[in-house]
Amino acid sequence: QVKLVESGGGLVQAGGSLRLSCAASGGDFSINAMGWFRQAADEQHELVATIERDGATKYGDSVKGRFTISRDNAKNSVFLQMNSLKPEDTAVYYCAAARSDYISLTVPEYEYWGQGTQVTVSS
Q1: 53-94 pLDDT, tens per residue?
Q2: Cα 115 to Cα 56, 62, 64, 119, distances in angstroms
Q3: Residue pair 122/49 in contact by the 8 Å Cβ criterion
């Protein structure tokens, strides 16, 4: 069974930066597409960024130019560097992983999810 463990969330002032990490373990197959989604209170999951095994990326419109997704295939890990944070970035951030290798997978197409890490941006 694949397990995803996130780290790096916390409280930061507007304009600050945070770096999220997610490591996958377990399972007997390769993790391919990986991504970050977020969910604010009373909202649905929102795409933050996704990345294919070869490094192709896709970003949500609200984070383009501020967030950068990257991965380490050898360690089955994915990272999210978040700069110029805004109060509207406040949410629980979830790491997701899929057997498919496609940056435009939808939320239901990701088979594995982490427990989530809270990011709070104060104004």
Answers
A1: 999 999 999 999 999 999 999 999 999 999 999 999 999 999
A2: 25, 23, 24, 13
A3: no
